[in-house]
Each structure stands twice: as C-alpha cells, then as structure tokens.
Amino acid sequence: MRLPARRLLPATALTAASALLTGCFAGAESSADAGADGKRIRVAMMQPPRSGLSPLSDDAFKLSRWSAAETLVKLDKEGDAQPALATKWRQSGRSWTFEIRPGVTFHDGTELTAETVVNSLTRAATASPKPRILDGVELTAKADGDKVTVTTATEDPLVPQRLSSPQLSILAAKAYRGKTVDPVGAGTGPFELTKVNGTASASLDRYEDYWGEKAKAPGIDVKFVPDGTARAAALRSGEADIVESIPVSQAAVLDQDLITEVPMPRTNTLYLNTGKGAFKDASLRAAAREAIDAEAIVKGVYEGRADVAEGLLGPALPWAAELRGPVTRAAEAGKPNGEAITIGTYTDRSEMPEVAATLQQQLQKAGFKVKLDVREYTNIESDALSGRFDAFVLSRATVLDSGDPAAYLYSDFATDGTFNLSQFADKGVDKALKKASETKVGDARRKAIIEAEAAVLTQDAAVPMLHERVIQGDAAGVVDAAHDPRERELVTVDTYVK
C-alpha cells in the first residue's frame, strides 16, 4: 500500500540531516576512550540550550538526560522519592533533614559535602526567577556535619519530590560565578560534561571516579537538531544512535523496531490571555473552547498517535480520570463577531505549527479573525510570558519537575505563577492550588489536585486539547536507552552501542 505523500521523507531531507549532523559526530570515534571498550553514543536532541545549560532553567533536564548532574533524591516509576545523593531523610514539621551520601566527588575532583549541597540549593532558592519547582515556596538550607536541613516557610509534604527536580541539581562550587551557573566539569553523574558549543552541540566523557556503577559507554556526543524531519532522517541514515522526539508525521515511515511510543504526562494546551484582548471576556473564552475540535487535531495532525484531552492531566496519570467529574463553566459561550486574535506557537516541536494552523481554521469558522505568529521557542518565550499574544499553543509537561502535577498547576495558573501564559488571576483558583500544594502525598492530595484542575477549567483560562505520546528513536545497536515519560532519563550507566 502506498503511503500518503506528506508522510514520505524526501531524499533531500536525508541529505540535509546528514550534512547537519556529520560535523558533530564525525570525530566521535576518535574522542577519549572511544574504541577501547565501546562506542560513544551519538544523540540528536530536539531543543537547543536556552540558558547556557544552567541547571536553574529547563536546560537542567538535558543535564539529567545525559546523566551529568544529579539531585539529592530521585523518583521511581510510581513517582515515589528514592535515595540519590542523599541516602535517607526525615521530616519534623517545616524541616526535612537529609543525610548526604559519602564518597562522592564532583567532576572537578572536589568532594560532595553538606556545604556544597547548601550552596547549590541556596543559589536555586534565591535565583530570579526561581526554578519552577520552587514557585510559591520559600526554602532555606543549612549544613550540620554530613546532614542538610531544608526548611520551608510553611509545612510542605512535597519537599523530597521537589528536591528530585533536575533544576535543583547539586554542582561543584566552581559552577557558580556571579549570576551565571556553568555546569561544565561540575556535576556528580556517571558522565562528565566536557564541552559545550553554544546551541549546536555538547560532549561528555565517562567519569571514571563515579560513586556508583561505572557507565558502559565511554562518552556521549550531542547535536541539537530543532528540525524534526532532520532528526528522523538522522535515525534512518545512521548518523545518530538515539533520537529525541520523532515527529508523528515521520514515525510511520521509519522502521517500527527502531521507535518506542509511550503515553506522556504532556498536554497540548491552548492558553488564553485572560488579562487583555478578546479573551479577557469569559464568554469569548468559552466560545473558543467550544469551537475547538480536538479529535480532528489528533487524527489530522498527530495521525492518531495522541489522546484527546478530557482535562489538563492525561492517561499517564490514570488516577486523574478516575477522580475527575463534570466541570461547571463560569460563562456561557458568546458569539464572536470578527474579534482579531493572534495565536503564538513555536517550531521546535514539528506538530505545533500544524496544530496552530488547524486552530486558526476552527476559530475563524466560529467567527474570530485569526493571525498566527510562529517562531523558534527561544525567540518567542519572552513574548508569550509577557502576554503579547491573545492565545498560545504549548506542549506542556504536567509532572516534569516533581513527579507531582501540583507544581505545574501552580506555575501555570496561580496569580504569582512564573509560567502564567494566560495572565490568569483568580482568588478561588489560588485557594484551590494552595490546598493541593499543602495536602499530604496520597489519595487526599490527588483529590485536591483534581479540584484545582476543575477550578482552572471552570474559568476557561486554558483549553487542553490532547495528551502526547513520546516517540523516541534508538538505532539497532543501542542497548538499554531509557524511555522515560517524565523526560528525565535518556542515556544511563547501562546504555551503550554495540
């Protein structure tokens, strides 16, 4: 059966990808230790660094996925906290005391101590802006021998999960110079970040003095490839061993044995600007929601490789559907009368421009006049955060930071949330978000989270459209690459290339 022409990967794209990637990977086999006990792993990643690989930004997840930087705590598959650089911990009211793992060295040879842990946590807690995981959280850290006591302004049941966020990675003292954070040679992971070439590439070597199991691969060579077609071509051509985020439009034409598809805690959402413009009117927000046909987007853009959203939280969190009930909307849908709106989105995820184009058609049919503004994410994020758009299409990870969606909900929908694309402010929602954040981990917390989700949806501050599935490409020779829905792991100590 002949595949539709739009799905086929042109030879020109394959050639372009080869040219794009060869410069980074050509020297991989001659790098340190290559050939001695295995091949270096060539990785094609989607988004280039946004903040010079500072762990205080989303770049932290790159350091985590390369196993270069580590945190006090890690999460298991269920989202429960497990030991990492801390071996155990206990709570006493507003304070949590963590015992620091002995015998750990940073990549510069200095020792991991309670003081270095306090230094990293303090820099994160006092940063401006704070890492998302600390939205609404006042946190201080104090050293006492081989222990670190972390204290919050109010009792916080989620402290261990917060400290698992890659944005709270522990780095050597040398990483912190002035207002910048440089992770090169400053982590504790099984791979040492040795070189960063701006937004083009990065190199890592195995750290021979790692405190845990020695990495099986001698190193990692990373190329940042925002173009999804080029990433898919890199897998087909053999230019890359592991490829992040294969576009759904290319997945069908790749060898299905080389791709893995996993439901993700990631929601494709249309954020509506409630602060100004057309969508300050709640009835027009309701009209936009009713005009959107998410099922058509799933079938037409994602070719069925996604799930229609019933709420902000998707099937990667099965308890959400079990607890969710009907949502009563605050306003009835009004009748658009040619109101002009601008929708922003970005090219880094190849589906986003097509999603925006489909939304443009659906909203224009409903009576809006719609203009699109599509750029690379690094060039559009600041405008989105400052409220320059009437609406913004975003693929948003809902448990990226802590394994718990309360932090995401607070960041995106609290009045003082640092990622409040909707410019949203509602006392009732703030109250619900505060309750969810303060409830102890377990069933009661999950119920409070769903109540907070309902409060947001009642106001139509955002329209959840679909829940994505991650499609990762692993070449035939790749062994034990991580397939992590939370996007925290990719290359681990067990990953190697035959």
Automatic annotation (TrEMBL):
Q: Where is the signal peptide?
A: 1-28
Q: Does the keyword Transmembrane helix apply?
A: no
| Alphabetized CDD domains for the sequence | PBP2_NikA_DppA_OppA_like_3
- Indicate the transmembrane segments per the record: none
Provide a GO CC annotation, any one.
ATP-binding cassette (ABC) transporter complex
- Solute-binding protein family domain boundaries: 82-417
Molecular-function GO terms, alphabetical: peptide transmembrane transporter activity
Q: What keywords does the record list, in alphabetical order?
A: Signal
Which Gene Ontology terms describe the biological processes this protein takes part in?
peptide transport
Q: InterPro entries from the xrefs?
A: Peptide/Ni-bd, SBP_5, SBP_5_dom
In terms of Gene3D superfamilies, this protein maps to: Dipeptide-binding Protein, Domain 3 (3.10.105.10), Periplasmic binding protein-like II (3.40.190.10)
- Give one Pfam hit by family name: SBP_bac_5
Lineage, top-rank taxon, reads Bacteria
Q: Does the keyword Signal apply?
A: yes
Q: What is this protein called?
A: ABC transporter substrate-binding protein
